[in-house]
Amino acid sequence: MTDLTIQPYPVPVADAEGKSSEVRHGQNTVPSGFVPGRNGGALRPPWQPGEVPNPGGRPKLDRTPASAYAELLGTPGGTIAAIVKAYRAKRGKAFCGADLAAIGMLRTYASSTNPSQTRAAVEITDRVCGKVEQPHALRQQETEALIRALAESTGIDPAAIRALGEKLGGSS
Predict the structure, then answer these.
(1) Which end of the chain has the lower number of beta carbons within 10 A, N or C?
(2) In terms of residue numbers, what domain contains 113?
(3) What is the pLDDT of residues 10-25, one digit of tens each?
(4) Is residue 33 part of a domain?
C-alpha cells in the first residue's frame, strides 16, 4: 500500500547514486534550485539584483498589424473569400501572425451576425487611418447656450461666468 501522508516539511530525495537533486515537499517533487510554491508547484527563486531575465527585451514584430490591414484592404476581390485567397497567394511564405489577425478581423467586420462587427470596423480604421481626434472643447454657440442656462438657473451674471471660464482655461 502506498503512503499518502503529506510531509509537513521538505524531504530530500536521493537518486540511484545517492545524490540529492530534488526535494519532496508534501506530495510534490521540486527540482533543486527551486522553491515549493503556495499550491505545491515549483517556483524559481526571485531574480537577483542586476540579473536581467530577457536582456534583448521583447522581440520586435516583423510585420505590424496596421501594415497587414492596409495590404489586405488593398487586395482586389468581389467576396471576402476571394480577397483572402488572393491575399494569401500574394503573401506566400511571408504570411505571418499579423496577416492571420487581419484576416480574422476582416471576417468579423464582414459578418452581419457577429456582435463585434462595429468594434472590428473601428479597430481596422484606427490601425490603417489612425484614431479620429475627438473634439473636447465646446463650440462657441454651445458655450453661449450653456452660459445662458447657467446664468438663468443660478442668477449669476453671464459676464462673471465667462470670466470664470477664461480664468479656468476654457474658451468663451
Answers:
(1) N
(2) 65-129
(3) 555 555 565 555 555 4
(4) no
